[in-house]
Each structure stands twice: as C-alpha cells, then as structure tokens.
C-alpha cells in the first residue's frame, strides 16, 4: 500500500498577504482542493463498486483524506473566500455532458484531479512551500493509482464482425484497397494474422493496418505475437492453444483484450475459466482456409458454452458465410470471424455490408 504521511505543516507565510490579492489566491486554492477531492472520490467509487477492488478503494480513500489534511494545514481558511454564486466556470462543457464507458469516467476524473493538484502547486508557491510539496506528492501518487485502475479496465470492443488476414491474401496487389473497403463498410474488429512473414515486415504491415483501423474506429488485434502487439500498441492479441500462456500474456499486456482459440467445448471451458476476454471458437463448419484445422465442432458447442457462460463472448469462426450467419448467431454466438468470406469475395465491401446486415437481422 502507498504510504500517506501527514502533510508538511504550513509556515504561515500566507498570512502576510492581504486584500484582494490574498482573496484571489485562496479562492483558486479552494476551487482546486474541491476539484481534486471530487475527482478522487469518483475514482474511489469506481474502485469500490465498479472493480470491487478493496486495495485500490482504500488507496483512493487515503489519498482523498490526505488532500483534506492539506487544506487543514493551511494558515488561512480558503472557505472564507469562496464565491460559488459568481463563479463563471459553473457551466458544463459539451465534453462533460457524456461518458461512453467506465474507462472514460476514470480518465476524465483522474485528469481533473491531477490538473487541480498542479494548480495547487503553482499557486502554493505564492503562499507556502508546504502546499507545493504536498500537492506534488498527491499528484504523483494519483498518477500511479490511475495506472493501476486502467490496467483493470479493458477497453470496450465490438466483435460483431471480426475480419482476419491470411498469407494467401496478404501479397495480393488489391489487399490494401480491400482492407480499407472493409473498414468503411461495417467491420468492427480486425486481426493481423501473418504466419509466413518475418518480424520487420510484420511490424511495417501491422503499423499500416493499425493506422487504418484507427482511422475508421475499428479495434485492431495481432494474432499470436505478443511482442508485436506490444510494439504496435494493439487493442489486443489473439492466442492459440499452443501459444503463450494466457496469464503470462495478461501480465505483460495489461489493460488489453486477450482472445483465445478453442476448437471444442472442453478447450472453451478451460479458456473462459483461465480468463480469456473472448473465445474464437471453431472451426464451426468445414473450412479450407486453415490446412491444419481441427474437425468442425458445430453450432451445438456455441449453444452449450453460452448456456453455461452467458457473459463470456464467443466468436464463431470457420466456414462461415452469409448463409451460415443465422445459424451461428441464433445459437448464441456474439459475433463471427471471417477470412475468405471477405477477401475471397468478388466484392469484399459488399460482402462485409451483407454479413453485417445479416447479423443484425439474426439478432432480431
């Protein structure tokens, strides 16, 4: 646990200022003490209820109390100078009116508190060195706590229509045009899968793919290679049954999505219990894309896994085309993963659009 000592005592230097100058300084200090405590209180609630993490909850609680002690240690009382009624900063900005997920709540409130502590440091220089040192200490403690929280909150991803690359298509001249057409027309997640290429080339291709995905707001994954995922700062990695252990990948890739392949019910159960963020289950149907593919497991396995683990995403892969979408989605699959259904189509853009529309209808 982070150690919180009592704040350094005030020297009383601020009492030598008087009039409007002192009033303005203390009003700024009052506002930013409140902003810092409020932001940290939100983070405290995230740790307590959103993450059910007692350790982090206690850390934020102690930090909030530490900031309260900073206020008590001041030579003057900032509350005397408060004038909330005439504060021109009361209006909410459009950015403050909405948050899309828990991660955004954490980022916004951590930033709010950190900025407030920085303001306290600067204006504290006009009053007392103790304010500067205490605010700086609190700010750096908050940086560490923010990092811990964010490692526990994974980014939200949409795996409805998950497209993978394959060596058979990577070298085609039209590859990059096809990729961009797919991203424009409804792909929600994209995985870079290149079994026959070396590291430097994979990095160059992966970087270009990541930039394209970012351009269209599509989650970007790397197949198998944790090192490449780290180098590219991918949204996640997808591991096979014989790849790096999931718990090891989690340790080195915190706060990211880690998917796991499963070819049958037993592997699916083990993967979910090991903490995979989603399963790539298949092949569901016979497929020619993967030469060493396991026997098809059928839609019954999807249904069985979803009945037992309804909150664990299962993405169906293997032999899925437009005609098979209804079958896998109605069985409970959270999305589909495809290669040849898109890259092998006469019009990949149209194939993506039709797959997406079919998924939507199957969910109705």
TrEMBL record:
Residue numbers binding 2-[(2R,5Z)-2-carboxy-4-methylthiazol-5(2H)-ylidene]ethyl phosphate: 287-289, 319, 339-340
Residue span, ThiD2 domain: 27-148
Cofactor binding: number and manner: Binds 1 Mg(2+) ion per subunit.
Top-level taxonomic group: Bacteria
Chain positions recorded as 4-amino-2-methyl-5-(diphosphooxymethyl)pyrimidine binding sites: 191-195, 223, 261, 290
UniProt keyword annotation of Transmembrane helix present: no
GO cellular component terms, semicolon-separated: cytoplasm
Database matches in InterPro entries: Aldolase_TIM, ThiamineP_synth_sf, ThiamineP_synth_TenI, ThiD2, TMP_synthase, TMP_synthase_cyanobac_bac
Residues reported in the UniProt entry to bind Mg(2+): 224, 243
Any one Gene Ontology BP term: thiamine diphosphate biosynthetic process
Keyword set, alphabetical order: Magnesium, Metal-binding, Thiamine biosynthesis, Transferase
One Pfam entry name: ThiD2
Pathway, per record: Cofactor biosynthesis; thiamine diphosphate biosynthesis; thiamine phosphate from 4-amino-2-methyl-5-diphosphomethylpyrimidine and 4-methyl-5-(2-phosphoethyl)-thiazole: step 1/1
Signal peptide annotation: none
Entry's family note: Belongs to the thiamine-phosphate synthase family.
Function: Condenses 4-methyl-5-(beta-hydroxyethyl)thiazole monophosphate (THZ-P) and 2-methyl-4-amino-5-hydroxymethyl pyrimidine pyrophosphate (HMP-PP) to form thiamine monophosphate (TMP).
NCBIfam families assigned to the protein according to its UniProt record, in alphabetical order: PRK02615.1 (NF002727), thiE (TIGR00693)
Protein name: Thiamine-phosphate synthase
Organism the protein comes from: Carboxydothermus hydrogenoformans (strain ATCC BAA-161 / DSM 6008 / Z-2901)
